């Protein structure tokens, strides 16, 4: 025989757990071990025709082979049924949500987990096994969860309880019935007991916490002491409450706690009871109420942990301003650090507080130059470091203030903000800077050492090893960071080496410079340096730092910081990874923000919500990386990007910084796709407002093809790929408008002249190739070709229709290049000329003469040059 049972004084959770257990064990008989609570009694009375339960008298305990125990593990709470458990060969299954305590039963199957109700554990098993339940059964199970979780409001409630209720609602649970049984009024006996308890209130202050202990006696057992305790807790709202009531031959203790530092489960375990951190109970036989009260208070004083104080949550050292600091400067400090106010101090003594509202009012009236002492609040609400957080919370509410300075011995030692206080209740609160993705470092980090031989040159590998070695000697932690790590993971070649140093980055740079014999350019203001190996290869070295933007689009301010903060300041997760160069863990990947996963998923993701606001050029970089790797911009990041574009943040960036990013885009192999994406995201008007993308789109889409054609024809392939695209962007403009754009981007005169020459020269060349091409006019067309930069050649091919026209153009370009002079700058220099623009003019003049046929040999060229220079 199998039976299902629970503790005596059966409550709704125990009753519902028995109903649920019978769905899992359909051959088992549900057997009550003792009395029921009034709610259970009434429910069974109303539903006795559809519910079939047994008492101990109804069964033969000697035939029991398996006992399923729900909502308890305490054999003392099973009364006579405990005898059946001592028989040899009886299999025991336990389902319970109370913590283990000494003396608890153990079973062949134990499902003991900390949820709000035991019913939840059984519902989860019902769901896994696909066992069907009726609407009535769903309602009974909902009653159990709602009673033991205070309708999902007790601190012991978990997400699993809520999901279980959702499942029951899907199965037809009737919340009207639930509300009717849970909302019943107290019986007269319960009311009398509640009155006695209220009159016995005993207040205790233990380690800063308000503890209430009530006591009473009743001649007979009264069910519902837990409900009465909960009612008292709502009336008085202490940090923790205990009710101690002697009924019949036992003393019953129920505890409820509203703060984590008072663990009533731990406290009542010392009295032989058990429960949760926020709810527990105990029953003691053969003792007096005074003895229990004395022991309870002693345990409370021993077990209640000291409260969290200001010292544990305050920020220190504090960002402050002096009394004579100008209002405008105080406002910049607030903006830089995201503060809503700043303490005003003189020699560490607190004089007052200046708020952002005060600053904004002063600036609005043109008083940004005035000192803060004229606008600060002198009557400051402050706290001592040992003030409990609960008290400082009350201070903030009472005085409607968001920041409380912490003062000790007359000196400012810290500050507590609303966010600091809220984090003690809700955990980490969202800030102005919201991290989009964060990933814990794995216990066994990925090591990239094996990838280095395949994807880095021997010199770069040696440089990384040497950096780690010298860093160890200097007591520094050195990391390779950014693009080099990204491209190692992508198995792509990368010569962009970026070192981050936790320590003195400039000292490491000088050590590396001395070892390699190269020049070092240091920027002590930013804690950075650059090793200049050649014009094309430079290594950046930075002290781990965090950047603060004083206002949107500003250049960053720098402070010393950790590697985590240094990586957090970067643009995208895929660029926010580092690789340790330390000798002991060389190659270990550091990935705080999930960059490796984003590489695998093909996503470009920012690290926090204001990334594009603080540095709008990241809009251009997002597009560049997305198209370079054929990735996609992650959906939330794309939303942030579009919002930043809508706010026109790119207008706040200098044209030089936009050009720096734009030049990178124009130099990429997928430049055409990147420019199309910028137009798609409505960024184009901010970079080339005078140019209609639709007008230049056909040419831009063909520049890549044109560059391939030049290579296929074995004709000159421009080294300045970016200039080819720039010319294509502006080829529909008039010279005046083109010069305006060039001046805006601060191009040098030679670059501006090349752009203007290209857009004024290409129409005549295309017209000649198309309409009048013959042997007689090849020379004239060749002269026109010489007047435009070779970076215009791709545009000519892109705008040429059909194979016939392209073949003519190819022949023309081949003719021009075959006529290239054999003399060079060395010959001109040998004639006594100093290097300068005259060199280029002279060679172009020789080239022109060769095209005309007046110069044919090397001797002719040398004679022409001597005559040209003597004019």
**What is the helix fraction of residues, given as a range?**
40-55%
Mean pLDDT: 85
Query: What portion of the residues fall into strands of 2 or more residues?
Result: 15-25%
Global geometry: elongated
Q: What is the SS-derived class? A: alpha/beta
Order of neighbouring strands in the sheet with most strands: 19-20-21-18-17-24-25
Number of strands: 27
| N-end to C-end Cα span | 123 Å
Low-confidence stretches: 428-438, 546-561
Any idea what the radius of gyration is? Answer: 40 Å
Question: Describe the biggest sheet?
Answer: 7 strands, mixed
Number of helices: 38
Written account of the structure:
The protein has 871 residues and is an alpha/beta fold. It contains 38 helices and 27 strands. The strands form seven sheets. The protein has a seven-stranded mixed beta sheet with strand order 19-20-21-18-17-24-25. Helix 33 (778-786) crosses helix 35. It starts with a strand and ends with a helix. 39% of the residues are buried.
